[in-house]
């Protein structure tokens, strides 16, 4: 794919995805319960062949799916993305037995996956996590501690869990484990959050894990986490772009029909300039997202910087665009059930999860200085 344009077949596929989201996925999403896993929606994503693509596509296709679904049904987009985030470490770093047991069920929507990295004291600073993996004397470990703000918890069927196996080693002492939800000592509680998708906390009380549960290598789990985030950060940006586009489309429709001050709302210069700014920022974010996705798929050495830039720009842009759309719609946009009321709740969290905006700025600066030093 060229870095800054889509092929005709890709544009056609995106149109088909938007139609599927509107016609088949949104009705199922509307039947779901906020804050709970929507199993019917997951099953339909599997039947449509979208969940299997999580394991056969690159970052560009993932971004195309997330942006297209987000324009018509954010619940479907999020359900797809959370399956991918939780299961990608298994796909990329799991053993044949782990992949054989879980990936087919993730792909057909019968098993729910979750990515368990954040903790009460280790959100943005992921290397500071403290969930302890203590040796059990038989070649395995016991996990003790807490995870918090975990999407799909506590309803997931398995968790990709990151725990500290070596004290005092920072990022080098973290191991990734595949932990089925039925392990003794593992319990969870839902959290009542602004976003409508399921988020919960997990408590680990000496949960047993063995060498067969390790994803990758012991003490190398931070790499598992970061390679997963390098893939998903641009696609978080794609989700944000999809929401921004939905808000922009709604604003174009509204301002073209709304009577105000003897004409249409769009005839007011301040309105027209705001709409132009919304479109400008949305397109700029879209281009950066697909440039970062292309960098991932081509193995570009500056991927981490590009991924951070894409997530940062796109999520901050979506916040601006949705807020501007609410302002131009007025009070009606704040009615419960209005598209923009829904987007206003959805758009806030992506600036925090998978690395807050401040973290992305830190990554960008670090990579820039490293490149400068390497060039000397």
UniProtKB/TrEMBL annotation:
Residue span, Acyl-CoA dehydrogenase/oxidase N-terminal domain: 10-109
GO MF, one example: acyl-CoA dehydrogenase activity
Acyl-CoA oxidase/dehydrogenase middle domain segment(s): 114-206
Ranges where the Acyl-CoA dehydrogenase/oxidase C-terminal domain occurs: 219-368
Keyword annotations: FAD, Flavoprotein, Oxidoreductase
Pfam families: Acyl-CoA_dh_1, Acyl-CoA_dh_M, Acyl-CoA_dh_N
Origin superkingdom: Bacteria
Coiled-coil annotated spans: none
InterPro entries from the UniProt entry: Acyl-CoA_DH_CS, Acyl-CoA_Oxase/DH_mid-dom, Acyl-CoA_Oxase/DH_mid-dom_sf, AcylCo_DH-like_C, AcylCo_DH/oxidase_C, AcylCoA_DH/ox_N, AcylCoA_DH/ox_N_sf, AcylCoA_DH/oxidase_NM_dom_sf
Swiss-Prot/TrEMBL cofactor(s): FAD
Family membership: Belongs to the acyl-CoA dehydrogenase family.
Name under which the protein is recorded: Acyl-CoA dehydrogenase
Natural source organism: Streptomyces antibioticus
Biological classification of the source: Bacteria, Bacillati, Actinomycetota, Actinomycetes, Kitasatosporales
């Amino acid at each position: 794919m060229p870095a800054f344009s889509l092929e005709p077949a890709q544009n056609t596929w995106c149109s088909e995805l938007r139609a599927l989201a509107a016609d088949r996925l949104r009705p199922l999403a509307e039947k779901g319960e906020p804050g709970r896993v929507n199993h019917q929606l997951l099953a339909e994503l599997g039947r449509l062949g979208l969940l299997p693509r999580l394991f056969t596509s690159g970052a560009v296709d993932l971004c195309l799916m997330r942006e297209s679904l987000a324009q018509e049904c954010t619940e479907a987009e999020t359900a797809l993305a959370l399956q991918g985030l939780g299961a990608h470490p298994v796909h990329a770093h799991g053993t044949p037995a782990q992949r054989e047991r879980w990936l087919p069920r993730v792909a057909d929507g019968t098993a729910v996956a979750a990515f368990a990295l954040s903790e009460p004291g280790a959100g943005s600073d992921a290397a500071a996590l403290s969930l302890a993996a203590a040796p059990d004397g038989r070649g395995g470990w016991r996990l003790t501690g807490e995870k918090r703000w975990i999407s799909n918890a506590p309803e997931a069927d398995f968790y990709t869990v990151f725990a500290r196996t070596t004290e005092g080693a920072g990022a080098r002492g973290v191991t990734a484990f595949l932990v089925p939800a039925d392990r003794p000592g593992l319990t969870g509680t839902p959290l009542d959050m602004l976003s409508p998708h399921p988020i919960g906390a997990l408590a680990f009380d000496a949960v047993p894990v063995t060498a067969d549960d390790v994803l990758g290598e012991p003490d190398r789990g931070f790499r598992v986490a970061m390679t997963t985030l390098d893939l998903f950060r641009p696609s978080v940006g794609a989700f944000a772009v999809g929401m921004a586009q939905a808000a922009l489309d709604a604003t174009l429709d509204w301002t073209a029909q709304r009577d105000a001050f003897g004409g249409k709302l769009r005839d007011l210069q301040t309105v027209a300039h705001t709409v132009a700014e919304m479109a400008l920022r949305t397109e700029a974010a879209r281009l950066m997202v697909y440039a970062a996705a292309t960098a991932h798929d081509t193995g570009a050495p500056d991927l981490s910087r590009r991924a951070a830039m894409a997530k940062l720009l796109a999520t901050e842009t979506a916040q601006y665009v949705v807020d501007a759309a609410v302002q131009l719609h007025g009070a009606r946009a704040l009615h419960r059930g209005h598209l923009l009321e829904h987007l206003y709740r959805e758009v806030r969290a992506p600036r925090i999860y998978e690395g807050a905006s401040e973290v992305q700025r830190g990554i960008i600066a670090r990579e820039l200085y490293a490149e400068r030093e390497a060039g000397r």
